[in-house]
From TrEMBL:
The keyword Transmembrane applies. This is G-protein coupled receptors family 1 profile domain-containing protein. It comes from Capitella teleta. It is found in: Membrane. InterPro entries: GPCR_Rhodpsn (IPR000276), GPCR_Rhodpsn_7TM (IPR017452).
Length: 359
């Protein structure tokens, strides 16, 4: 597959033999699945933003993290779609139309891709503090802290990938222009860039999530075994526990969906097939990349499955929309009825006036 994602960048050309079918299967698979992931992901992320900004969620630090995550995930889905799907299905290569967009896409896609990972780490740390240090949680896990973290993380991500701006350019030396690594930076981009991206996006977050969520689960089980996690009347503790379980579910899903991608690239480097791939490897890459892309589209469904409060708020939002539509229809019908009544009244008045004139 060519340029499926920029973490890392692949430049593979399919061979002219029977193995072409593997490349065709990989391309058809991506073309079919990518729009589904985009639509489902965007709808879910928009609903997440709506629910997380309702009054019942607004005071929570978790709502800040998950709202920012929904925006970041949506940007990942859009940027991936306008590059890969447009190119593979419509033969529209946006990245070669302008060098500025070539640099922007290669740079900003990695930024938001990595930002999503570290937002999950941040909310996991928030829950770790809440579970292990409940008396300090009110101060350390406040809404203000969440806002600061969500402002600082993008800046760090932008700085980490600053080398990509001069590292890419529009290469017009061949038959067709290509958004390619700059000759002056090619050694770094091809030798170290992929590892840097993999560590920032996948390896680092996965290790931290395993550690923090392992500690969270250990603490929750320990409290449950001692029957001192909460009392039946302590609704605030019960709510905090449900939120924590939701975040753990999100983290587990992230690990399951991105770990295959991380292991795949380790395998590629070990086998020396990072640049020149066998057809079966290209098909495997497409599958793990689809899994990685799905990570940015499934969070809404994880919230619905693991959080009764979130489910109730989603139902409330949907019911409000239906009620609003019904009210609008009812108002329109009432307006029509008033109009018809007034028209009949005017006709009656006119008829009466004519009768009096004839008398």
């Amino acid at each position: 597959m060519d340029e499926m994602v920029t973490l890392p960048v692949l430049t593979t050309a399919p061979p002219d033999n029977d193995d072409d079918r593997y490349y065709k299967i990989a391309e058809d698979l991506f073309i079919a699945v990518s729009p589904i992931i985009l639509i489902v992901g965007l709808v879910g992320n928009i609903l997440t933003l709506v629910v997380m900004n309702r009054p019942s969620h607004r005071p929570s630090s978790v709502s800040i993290y998950l709202s920012t995550l929904a925006i970041s995930d949506s940007l990942v889905l859009i940027l991936d779609f306008i590059n890969n799907w447009f190119k593979m299905h419509l033969d529209i290569k946006l990245l070669v139309m302008d060098e500025s967009f070539c640099k922007f896409h290669r740079y900003f896609f990695d930024v938001v891709y990595t930002l999503s990972s570290w937002l999950i780490v941040a909310v996991s740390i928030d829950r770790f503090i809440t579970v292990w240090f409940p008396f300090k949680a009110k101060k350390l896990c406040s809404k203000k802290t969440a806002i600061i973290v969500c402002c600082v993380l993008p800046l760090i991500s932008l700085a980490c990938y600053a080398h990509r701006v001069p590292g890419w350019h529009l290469d017009e030396t061949g038959i067709e222009p290509v958004c390619n690594t700059h000759p002056k930076h090619r050694d770094f981009q091809e030798s170290y860039g992929p590892w840097l991206s993999a560590v920032l996006y996948s390896y680092g977050p996965i290790v931290m999530l395993i550690v923090f969520n392992g500690l969270i689960v250990f603490r929750l089980r320990k409290k449950a075994s001692k029957k001192d996690a909460m009392t039946p009347n302590d609704k605030s503790l019960s709510q905090e526990r449900r939120i924590t379980i939701t975040i753990v579910v999100i983290c587990v899903a992230f690990i399951l969906l991105t770990l295959p991608l991380a292991l795949f690239y380790i395998f590629q480097f070990a086998m020396g097939e990072f640049i020149e791939q066998r057809p079966t490897i290209a098909l495997a890459e497409t599958i793990v990349l689809i899994l990685g892309l799905s990570n940015h589209a499934v969070n809404f469904f994880l919230y619905v499955m693991s959080s009764p409060k979130f489910r109730a708020d989603v139902c409330s939002v949907v019911c409000c929309c239906r009620k609003s539509t019904r009210n609008q229809t009812s108002d329109d019908n009432s307006t029509d009825k008033r109009y018809n009544t007034e028209r009949v009244s005017m006709e009656n008045i006119s008829a009466t006036a004519e009768w009096l004139e004839t008398r």
